[in-house]
Amino acid sequence: MDELLARAMQGVDPDAPDAFLRVFLNLMALVPWATLFWWNLLFLAVGALLGWWRGRTAEGIAWALVLGPIGWLIILGKPRRKMPPPLPK
């Protein structure tokens, strides 16, 4: 914990008016953004696939975007959408 606090406070004057912003930016620099981005794309792809399988592609993408893998469980819990009858000729 001391190491994390030291990294967050690196180069920050606690008495400066922008100290909170500097600490926040230091903490955000520690987050692996590229890895999170690729995991999110994987969650969306699986959500789209599960949604397509259930006849609810847009719903699958939306739930996966909002909740990640938990959204997969929601889309799997919903019944398959029935296909509408064909139009008369």
Can you give a write-up of this model?
Helix 3 packs parallel to helix 5 and helix 4 runs antiparallel to helix 5. The radius of gyration is 22 Å and the shape is rod-shaped. The longest helix has 22 residues. The chain is an all-alpha fold and 89 residues long. The chain has two domains: 31 residues, no CATH class; 58 residues, no CATH class. It comes from Frateuria flava.
Task: Give a topology summary.
Layout: H1 2-8, H2 19-29, H3 33-54, H4 57-67, H5 69-77
List keywords for this structure.
mainly alpha; 5 helices; single chain; 89 residues; 67% helix; rod-shaped; 2 domains
State the gist of this model:
The protein has five helices and no strands. It has 89 residues and is mainly alpha-helical.
What profile does the largest beta sheet have?
A: none
Helix content: 55-70%
Mean pLDDT, to the nearest integer, reads 91
**Number of helical elements:** 5
Report the portion of residues in β strands: under 5%
The total domain count is 2
Q: Could you say which structural class the secondary elements and strand pairing correspond to?
A: mainly alpha
How widely separated are the two ends? Answer: 71 Å
Global outline: rod-shaped
User: How many β-strand stretches?
Assistant: 0
Weakly predicted, low-confidence segments: none
Q: What letter string, H or E per element, gives the SSE order? A: HHHHH
- Over the alpha carbons, how many angstroms does the gyration radius reach? 22 Å
